[in-house]
Design brief:
Layout: E1 15-19, H1 23-34, E2 38-42, H2 46-65, H3 71-79, E3 81-84, E4 95-98, H4 104-115, E5 123-126, H5 133-138, E6 146-151, E7 160-165, H6 171-183, E8 187-192, H7 199-215, H8 221-232, H9 238-245, H10 247-261, H11 270-277, E9 291-292, E10 300-301, E11 321-325, H12 329-340, E12 344-348, H13 352-371, H14 377-385, E13 387-390, E14 401-404, H15 410-423, E15 429-432, H16 439-443, E16 452-457, E17 466-471, H17 477-489, E18 493-498, H18 505-521, H19 527-538, H20 544-551, H21 553-567, H22 576-583
């Protein structure tokens, strides 16, 4: 009969066994030893155990060199770690953390053996990120003491730890490991048992869609990765991250998620299977989506898919003057960007007053740059002098490039393009900044669809480095070359993509945001826990709910509807909770309430 679990029966988890001494197990052992725990590292491979010890020696030596540890600290940390190839070394452990390969058979075998080795009160934790904690617990003699303890790689640096309860887990066990995580300097997040938990549950769906986008040849691997780094502020692009995680590992996680959810967004993209079966599993193999200097290296080297230096072979058209249509934040930001780069800019709005207000906004932005020492007062004055504000599009007659940044309404944009068609000189390039509407629909409103292209800037335009360059099936090669050249002159990173809903960034970003809303809707995790998980576990600059409230829930809903309508995937249907909040007028920061409430301005 299992020993009843109570708070009083729990030790303070002073001795911890770590089973599996790969990269993750080694990192966990280091974290535990630095926090004063006695650590027993166990691996069937003596070579792997020796590698773990060498890694700990090297890591602590770096700590001494950087002044974070004394030599005495280092000696004490290393003395707290011993290794073994025998699972019986875990006999005296208060907690066992298993980080063996992601296989039910392997993990169940370890848990069965541990049942006959450890004390009745010992807590057994699995480090899985894809397998069912409940299924592992059910096979244990003490299911109430089994839970998930999911660290993130690299464990010494990443602050997030997901504490995963099954329906069988005793609350006292959860409390004990949560307190341990806090003592380790980590941020524990309590989650239920479902594949991927919070962070990986959201992350791997996004990575899968990025792989599918690349497989469909919609955009190059370099452009997909650059778009998500520069457009969302992520530390790595999705394809580079898949190579780091391991393509085979990602496939395993996604298969587990798909088995549980049956959501097509989790069905592993075929390219993941193809790369895995070919042994091209990412950095560890020396090749995955990218090719690396050597197995285990993070240095990317050129291969047959690397873009040629020098860009477009087709010469672009000359651009000296630019017209910007609109009076909002995006229009004024784009006008500022062009003026700073030395272009003569005509800023046109529906009235002279609106145009002057937009120019005044640019003046304030330039003044802030002067105050922060980013430019001189003279340069700011010269920049503002290059901008002519006007209340009529007739003043676009001589511009070489016209960029519209008006309301995200197709009929409004079509009417504007029809007007530009009449006003702009032959050979002028006409660009739309739409983030979700078909560029070709704007092109068809003109008599020169070959001159129309998408230039999707990101807000705030002066700060954000990315521009998505969107070609339609009708866009001329020299128009595409012109916009690429212009992006270089205004110091923006251009990525190429085709004319379909969401382009690169929004097509990958908004399904991730929608899935986060579904987690809250299903009461799986709280807003705060999800935001914390993605910032701490994924390196995101903002959690999904922080971002949704900043973007605007109405804007987010509109983009999600466009994606659902274009791709017809049930998994892309907007979460009902988002629709309900928008219907209630809770649109985010701009209304003072969205997923959270904000102080009134």
């Amino acid at each position: 009969m299992a020993t009843p679990l109570s708070d009083s029966s729990l030790s303070p988890l002073r001795t911890v066994a770590v089973v599996g001494l790969g990269t993750m197990g080694t990192g966990i052992a280091e974290v535990l030893a630095k926090a004063g725990r006695e650590v027993v590292g166990i691996d069937i491979s003596e070579a792997q155990a020796a590698k773990c010890v060498a890694a700990l020696e090297a890591s602590t030596a770096r700590g001494v060199e950087r002044g974070r540890l004394t030599e005495q600290d280092r000696a004490e940390i290393l003395a707290r770690v011993r290794t073994s190839a025998d699972l019986r070394a875990a006999a005296d452990a208060d907690l066992v953390i298993e980080v063996a390969p992601e296989s039910y058979e392997v993990k169940q075998q370890i848990f069965r053996e541990l049942d006959g080795i450890v004390r009745p009160e010992t807590i057994l934790a699995t480090g899985t990120n894809a397998l069912s904690v409940t299924r592992l617990a059910a096979d244990s003699a003490r299911p109430e003491r089994v839970l998930g303890l999911h660290f993130f790689n690299p464990a010494p640096a990443m602050r997030l730890v997901e504490v995963v309860s099954s329906v069988l887990t005793a609350p006292a066990a959860v409390t004990a490991v949560t307190n341990l995580a806090l003592d380790l300097g980590k941020e524990p997040v309590a989650v239920g048992d479902r594949p991927g938990f919070v962070a990986d549950g959201l992350l791997f769906g996004y990575l899968n869609q990025a792989a599918a986008m690349y497989e469909a040849k919609y955009a190059s691997r370099e452009d997909i990765d650059a778009a998500m780094r520069l457009g969302c502020g992520l530390p790595m692009g999705p394809l580079a991250l898949l190579d780091l995680i391991g393509v085979d590992t990602a496939r395993t996680v996604l298969e587990a998620m798909y088995a549980a959810s049956r959501d097509r967004l989790h069905a592993p993209a075929p390219i993941l299977k193809q790369l895995s079966e070919a042994g091209l599993t990412g950095r560890k193999a020396g090749r995955g989506f990218y090719t690396y200097e050597a197995p285990g290296s993070g240095t990317v080297v050129r291969d047959a898919l690397t873009p040629l230096e020098g860009g477009d072979l087709v010469p672009g058209r000359e651009v000296r003057s630019v017209g910007v249509a609109g009076s909002g934040t995006m229009a004024s930001g784009i006008a500022e960007v062009f003026a700073k780069a030395g272009f003569e800019v005509v800023l046109a709005a529906r009235s002279e007053e609106k145009a002057q207000t937009a120019k005044a906004r640019i003046g304030k932005s330039l003044a802030r740059s002067v105050d922060k020492g980013r430019m001189t007062a003279e340069a700011a004055a010269e920049t503002l002098d290059r901008i002519t504000a006007t209340g009529t599009y007739d003043d676009f007659a001589d511009v070489d490039l016209a960029v519209e940044a008006v309301a995200e309404d197709l009929e409004v944009k079509r009417q504007l393009f029809a007007a530009l068609d009449k006003v702009c000189k032959p050979g002028a390039v006409l660009a739309t900044t739409t983030s979700s509407l078909p560029v070709v629909a704007c092109a068809r409103a003109t008599s020169r669809p070959q001159d129309v292209i998408g230039m999707h800037f990101f807000n705030p335009a002066p700060a954000m480095k990315l521009v998505e360059v969107v070609r339609t099936v009708l866009t001329a090669d020299d128009v595409h070359a012109t916009v690429r050249e212009v992006c270089g002159r205004i110091r923006k990173h251009a990525v190429d993509c085709g004319d379909r809903a969401g382009f690169i960034v929004n097509a990958l970003l908004f399904p991730y945001l929608n899935n986060a809303i579904k987690m809250v809707q299903e009461h799986y995790a709280t807003l705060d826990d999800i935001d914390a998980a993605m910032k701490l576990g994924g390196g995101y600059p903002m959690g999904p709910f922080e971002l949704l409230d900043v973007v605007g829930l109405d804007v987010s809903l509109a983009i999600e509807k466009v994606l659902h309508r274009e791709f017809r995937d049930p998994g892309l249907a907007p979460a009902p909770l988002l629709e309900h909040l928008v219907a209630a007028g809770c649109l985010g920061r701009k209304t003072g309430r969205g997923f959270r409430e904000y102080a009134k301005r």
